């Protein structure tokens, strides 16, 4: 808890950790999974990594949740098994997010949202400068979660391991307890930005369990770039949801990510 000082965030962090422990208890009962690199079987729980929110999230004017498909090299054998703690430690060490399309795009987008879309792409700071200020103030103001808590640790897994993702969703037994919906409700976002979840590779019957079609109302679309929806959370709260390409997709940070999100949320302010 050393990075979390606010009383509400400490409370919510504990609630989130308990949710993850309950989730892990289900995963521990599942069959071993073969790791593609060495063709050996490993306990399913060894793939599990938690995620959630960074400091400053619950004080943000707009709570922004980024939802991706899976993480890489985040299983307990590579890190703490807690994505948030691992990333905060990496941030403190001074990693350069300019070289990571995933982090660069997230930081550009969150900076744009936090500054009300007032800056054009060519006026925003570098991702490194944005992150440096966040570390200095211990104020990040956003959350991240992956649909699959199984980490893709394969040396050859530059693309998503959809077999592993779908296995995780089945292993989670969401029909019995919808852990994903519980995590989203606990995070209580005002804006969700997803990473091309509906490209046909994640089983629709699983996606429907936590992102039901009936809760979406399309507002605007930039063809082959992004879609902007009004979305109703399980608790009845109406929020904004933007589905973009995956954050690691080759292409323009400006045209595929920053400008579409700013246009949707702030109408080219």
Question: Pairing-aware structural class of the strands and helices?
Answer: alpha/beta
Largest sheet: 7 strands, mixed
The Rg value, from CA coordinates, equals 18 Å
Helix amount: 25-40%
| Shape descriptor | globular
The strand line-up of the biggest sheet is 3-5-4-6-9-8-7
| Series of H and E elements | HEEEEHHHEHHEHEEEH
What's the count of strands? 9
State the end-to-end CA separation.
38 Å
Strand content: 15-25%
Features:
seven-stranded mixed sheet; 9 strands; alpha/beta
Outline the fold blueprint.
Blueprint lengths: L6 H21 L5 E3 L4 E3 L9 E2 L10 E5 L14 H11 L7 H14 L12 H11 L4 E5 L15 H10 L7 H9 L3 E5 L8 H7 L5 E7 L3 E7 L5 E7 L8 H14 L3
Parallel strand pairs: 4-5, 4-6, 6-9
Antiparallel strand pairs: 1-2, 3-5, 7-8, 8-9
Question: Quick summary of this structure?
Answer:
Helix content is 36%, strand content 16%. The protein is of the alpha/beta class and 269 residues long.
Describe the protein in words.
The protein has 269 residues and is α/β, with parallel strands linked by helices. The chain has helices spanning 7-27, 83-93, 101-114, 127-137, 162-171, 179-187, 204-210, 253-266, and strands at residues 33-35, 40-42, 52-53, 64-68, 142-146, 191-195, 216-222, 226-232, 238-244. The strands form two sheets. Strands 3-5-4-6-9-8-7 form a seven-stranded mixed sheet, covered by helices on one side. A two-stranded antiparallel ribbon has the order 1-2. Strand 8 (226-232) and strand 9 form a beta hairpin. Helix 1 runs antiparallel to helix 6, helix 3 crosses helix 4 (127-137) and helix 3 (101-114) runs parallel beside helix 8. The chain starts with 6 loop residues before the first helix and ends with a helix. The mean pLDDT is 93.
